[in-house]
From TrEMBL:
Belongs to the cysteine synthase/cystathionine beta-synthase family. One of its GO terms (molecular function) is cystathionine beta-synthase activity. It comes from Schizopora paradoxa. Residues 13-326 form the Tryptophan synthase beta chain-like PALP domain. It comes from the Eukaryota. It is an enzyme of class 4 (lyase). It catalyses: L-homocysteine + L-serine = L,L-cystathionine + H2O. This is cystathionine beta-synthase.
Amino acid sequence: MPLTGRILDNALDAVGNTPLIRLDKIAEREGLKCNLLGKVEYMSAGGSVKDRIAKRMVEAAEKEGKLIPGKSVVIEPTSGNTGIGLAMACAIKGYSVIITLPDKMSLEKEASLRALGAEVVRTPTAAAWDSPESHIGVAQRLRDSIPNAIILDQYRNVNNPLAHEYTTGPEIIEAVTSSNGSPRPSSGKVDVFVGGAGTGGTVTGISRAIKKTHNPAATVVAVDPKGSILAIPESLNDENRGGFYVVEGIGYDFIPDVLDRKDIDAWIKTGDEEAFVAARSLMREEGLLVGGSSGSALAGALKWLKSDEGKDISCTVGANVVVLLPDGIRNYMSKPWFLKMTMEAEQSTLAKQIKSILGPS
Ligand code: PMP
């Protein structure tokens, strides 16, 4: 439902309902004949795709009588965005929040969490998921000691994939099908969906929405960073296995329950550098202020479209390839990869011209 033209009850009503935007300049530069479309999730109220699951997990727990306003303490291990969604929902509804956040996650995410009233506990990024020191282990220890504490658990909660099966997926399908009749060629359906995997809730839920109700023949491509172990076949994970990567929000050292790899047709591995190059092209060419994992998703989509499996689609006029762009640059403005990218702008011809007119500053 459009968000304008009516009064919303609170910010949770402005979660989701994000635009599907053509990435025409990138498609043209890459020589693609298909439509390349970005689902732009930073336009959701809390700034990411994870607002949707936070809202659904809180509302489901309320229906089950598991949350008591003024008393309950919601604890969640997260790479940040689920935490921001939960902190937003809990600020509105009157629950306390503790977020356990690996060290590598940005200061901006911690600042947003604290702005929404959450407590933040940092944990060592290198701690294995099942160690007591990891973000998951620390959340469990706090839950066991704090009265009225609850972990909604995005890694196991069915409301994570369901939020995408019932909202993100149907929004994509509606946007694609209701654009039939526009002057731009279209197959009338979602032919390919590409998304990054962290918990895997996004790719699993959207795959189910597309394949169950819309186009069983669609191809769903999941993107996993080098260093993570989510991809299959297993051999794909050999490069930099267990190694560090900078991109936030995707990849894990265990397979979350909510990731159903049967729903995924192909896996693509991406590295940091190609992700940041792709994020920059989304900003510079398409004017979209996306975060790093959006770059991973686009880089993965382009790799798949150039692969043997994808090249027919890339040459098909009107085929619809949807790429999910999970969050925005607001989350990463102090990160070295972003600062490097913005400082490079100083080297532009226009910057040199400005210097020659005004002299060095
Ligand atoms: N990108 C970012 C920035 C995220 O925060 C997340 C959530 N961890 C994802 C991608 C992946 O989403 P999901 O957990 O649904 O796989």
